[in-house]
Amino acid sequence: MSPVASAAPPTSAGPSQARARQRRLSIPAGRPYSFALPMLPPRAPRIGTDRPAGSRSLMLRDGAAIHVKDWGTGRPVVFSHAWPLSSDAFDPQMRFLAARGLRCVAHDRRGHGRSSRTLAGHDMDTYADDLHELLKAYDLRDAILVGHGAGGGEVVRYLGRYGSERVSKVALIGAIPPLMLRTKDNPEGTPIETFDRMRESMLTDRAGFFRDFAATFFGCEREGADAATREAFVDQGMRTGLTAAYFGISALSETDLTDDLRRVDVPALVIHGGDDRFVPVEASALKAARLIRNTTLKIYQGASHGLCATHTDWVNEDLLDFITG
């Protein structure tokens, strides 16, 4: 059962220095390892054929194409990124895990990054359906799903809609479930006015909004949230289509994933920043850990929403321990 039942939620001081040193491995010379390649013309892999390598586009049921990165070999780890980013946000985790014998697969959500700029489909049901198509097309089984922020909502909705036939574990990092929006039954949530202001800013000055939002996402004063990190955030945000960024706010804030969490029947790792100013821990991780039957909860004290970038070593080690444990 989840440790959140205790009066004081557990905290994490990160991996031990000894363990961290032990796992700082270099990639041996001659070991096959692929980084992202330029996107090829859309071509959907067929089940049963040799899997694509590097980076490709996967054609979906409605004609949209999503950009997919496929690094390494071994047990599959499938990443779903946060709003308004792309799969590149998970590069530090993918590099780390691929170098340790795992196959890391990540897609740019529709409308994000290098994927098609679709007008419709920016909702959690469609996101989950797209993830389902990806798992089927690449014939991924015994997979570990990893979702950050809105990506956590995507993987939880996937499990609620399709079950865990292809999934053995799930990791939620700064994830939005069960519900971000403040309601009568969810007083810890964020007021609708906050999301309305985000939408308004998105339409009037998208670049300026992303620059300001980076302070909330990372916490400018925190160690690790340097100018380069914030600039990379703005760059990825601007590569997301306007409709995806705009309607994605409703998808991440107004989708109630409570019942989906109850349907999760695989071991779960829940990691959250104790000072997350975008997805407050009290409204998300603490509740999610109570709803999932088999949960390990880790709160990084003082960490913000962007902990995959600001606490990379901690996240990498905790993911590796969870996957191999």
Textual characterization of the structure:
- With 325 residues, the protein is α/β, with parallel strands linked by helices.
- Helices cover 38% and strands 16% of the residues.
- It has helices at residues 17-22, 91-98, 124-137, 150-162, 192-204, 206-218, 227-238, 242-254, 258-263, 285-291, 307-310, 312-324, and strands at 11-12, 54-59, 65-71, 75-80, 102-107, 143-148, 167-173, 268-273, 295-300.
- The protein has a 9-stranded mixed beta sheet, with helices on both faces.
- Strand 8 (268-273), helix 10 and strand 9 form a beta-alpha-beta unit.
- The longest helix is centred in the middle third of the chain and has 14 residues, at 124-137.
- The relative contact order is 0.17.
- Mean pLDDT is 87; it is low at 1-8 and 16-52.
Brief sketch in words of this structure:
The chain has 325 residues and is an alpha/beta fold. It has helices at 17-22, 91-98, 124-137, 150-162, 192-204, 206-218, 227-238, 242-254, 258-263, 285-291, 307-310, 312-324, and strands at residues 11-12, 54-59, 65-71, 75-80, 102-107, 143-148, 167-173, 268-273, 295-300. It is built from 12 helices and 9 strands.
